Amino acid sequence: MPLIAINVLDASNFLVGLITTISFLPNLLLGFHAGAIADKYNRKKIMLLCQSSSAILLALIPLLYVLDVLNIWILLLITFLTGCCSLFFQLSGASYLPEILSPNQLIKGNANLQLTHGASQVMGPTIGGTIIQILTAPIAIIVDAFSFFISFIFTLFLPAKSKKSSNKKVPYFPV
User: Fold this and answer.
1) How much is the pTM?
2) Residue 75 falls inside a structural domain
3) Which residue of 75, 98, 163, 164 is 20 to 30 Å from 23, comparing CA positions?
4) How far apart are CA 100 and CA 93, in angstroms?
C-alpha cells in the first residue's frame, strides 16, 4: 500500500506513514472484539469471509486506478478494511486449529502455523518488491488479490471439526 501511495498517488511522507499506521489500527481498536467474535461464530466461515473480502478490496485498487478515481482516502479506507480482515482471519485461524487437530497434534500444528506466518513475513515483502519492480505496483496488487482467492479455495477444503475435538468440553458461545 505505501508503494501504491508513493508510485501512483505521489503521496507525502506523512501520508505514507499514515498508511502504515492505519494498517495496524484494527489491532488496537478491534483486537478484543475480534477475539470474542472468533470464539462465538464459525471460525472457518469468518476466515472465508475475510479472504474473499480482502481479495475484493485489493482488486478494487487497480480497478479504481484504471478508472482514474483512486485517491489517498480510498487507499486509506481499503488499508484499514484489509487490516480488519487480517486481524479476524489470524484470530479465527489460530483458534480453528484446536477444532481440527487432536491435542497430541496441536503443538506441531501451532509450530507449522507460526513457521508459515514467519515465512510469509520474510518472503512476502521480497516477492512483492520483485513483482512491483517487474510489473508495477497496481499489477502486484492484482497478484496479491489473486493470492487471497487461492487461499480462499484452500480454506474451503479444510476439514470440519474433528470428532475428537468436538467432544471436548470447551467453554465458548455456540453458533
Assistant:
1) 0.82
2) yes
3) 98
4) 11
pLDDT in tens, the chain (175 residues): 888 888 888 889 999 999 999 999 999 999 889 988 888 898 999 999 999 999 999 999 999 999 999 999 999 999 999 999 999 999 998 888 888 888 888 888 888 888 888 888 888 888 888 888 888 887 888 988 999 999 999 999 988 765 444 444 444 444 4
Note down the domain range covering 15.
2-166
Q: Which of 35, 89, 32 is nearest to 57 (CA)?
A: 89
116 vs 79: CA distance, rounded Å: 23
76 within domain boundaries:
yes
Q: Which residue has the cell 503521496?
A: 11
